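Technical appendix A lists one of the benchmark inputs used to test multi-chain prediction within the project. The record comprises two sequence entries:
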Amino acid sequence: MSLLLVWHSAAIVVAAAPDSVITQAATSLFQPYFSLFRLQNEWSFYAPDVRVEPEFRYVVEDTSGQQHLFIPAAELSRYLPTDIWVKDWYIHVMDNPDTYSTFVGIYLCREHASLHPASVTLLEVDQKDFLPEDQLSGKHPFDPEFTDQKTLATVPCSNG
Amino acid sequence: MLERVTSAGVKKSSLAPWRDAWTQLWFQDKPTTPLEIARMGVGAALLFHYGLATPHLLTFWGDSGWMPRALLANEHTSAWQQSVFFYFAAPWQWLAFHMLFLFCCAAFIVGWRTSWVKWIVLIGHISYDYRNPVMTYGVDSIAACLLLILCFAPVGRALSLDRVREVRAAKRKDLAATLPPFTSPWAFACTRLMQIQMAVLFFFSGTGKLAGNDWRQGEAIWWLFTNSYYYNADILQLLAKQYWLVNVATYGTVLIELAFPFLIWQRATRPYLLAAALFLHFQFAALMHLYYFSWVMAMGHMSFVRPEWLNRLGAAWKRKIGGMEMIYDGTCGFCRRSMVWFLAFDGLQQIQVRDFRTNPSPIVSDEKMLKALYLVLPDGRALPGFEAYRYVVLRVPGLWWQIPFFYVPLFSRLFGHPIYNWIAANRSRL
């Protein structure tokens, strides 16, 4: 029993310890245990700095050339605990466009089949610094002057 | 020979203080109550969270959803990252497992067959996480860490249906029997593990923040609320007008996180640090809407609640309510079985019982007792039948789950009285 306590206590510390030669060696020993029970986490909540997260948007262009803008975050309810999963998934997609954009594009083509989509364009909206004086002068963090929009990918829809 | 014995004796006595310290650190004989609170809280959070995700089951975790298996290979780094969903092929299998998982979460909350449902809850939670790892965040890791410790621990021995079943078995033999609260050195060891988990989490969370300019310069909370996800116009306006609040909140967060792992262990400072940590999480819930995260963290902190505090709370409740005596008909098998069930939920042992056949009550006459069970209150009032039960369920914490049945305005009394009277009249046949 004492052995299990020592082992698990060490695992708790090693799992969160910053990267170093010692922790790398220890991590390799603990890795199967960490992976099996999902124990590895750096516990770096909003650290070292707070990330102002980008917002995911997409435009569905139908076969007649009309564009439909969708903002998934606008449909999330902060009172539902599952919405943070949805937000994190979109952030992961934006952080890894090479891996995910084609899949997400095709997925959204299927989701919006009723619009007869020709293509889906994935967008990332990044926020610029918004200072207290900006707030006091009546501006909004999502005003165009405080955001940068970039296109992640345009994915053609096969049924379009 | 003498020399060898002496040397062994010296060795033994020199190791004794270490052994005592080790026992003091890990193996004190304590109840499982703090862990049971964590069990119920974490179980409720998981049931609520995954229950709400049911309509999105196949979108979140299915093969045709957001994480097809081909992409999953990019996210996994170890063959040890396993999920039961890897072995499913048809949508009904996802649904069947999801239902089993939710059922086990519910069983975990109420402590029914806890010794094995806890493992299904752990396996289920890890399986969801590994089936779509990109969707998860800090709280999912915390929940996994707490669940594993709860799986190690002998939970389900208090505040649970398992305990009710145990007490009921003893009371079936002798209605006056009482079982001492369950205590064990291993329960304390697991409580200690959970405490270490929470202290380490706070330590690395605090030191991680020190490495960032946002936190060092006292501006992190401002940037947090300009984030589209946490944006709140009123809060941002208040912070912009009173920017010192941003500094106080930023430095206050770091201070609590850094002080917690050092000062939570001392008897004198623990209540303050515990209150500060809970206050921090209350703010995360209220201002950032991180309900699930805050709740699970608060449940982890329950490991720092001393069993003595809970005992004092229970004793204070018992004093406030006062003693109650239930008088029943000992010749009626149904009445006796009902009393056994009822008393099994009375964890604080607030109710005394009296069989009027062998021990007549000086307050309630035998004629009255032939018609209904009676509850005698400290002020001498005697409540019959349905009213007796109605009075008790509000005052015995173990029976609070029955409040919805006994306190629906109008309906409870409208249906409760005739149902009770019918049962009382026919009790010899039941």
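Residues 18 and 157 of chain A are 44 Å apart (CA to CA). Chain A has a mean pLDDT of 91. Comparable benchmark entries are summarised in Table A2.
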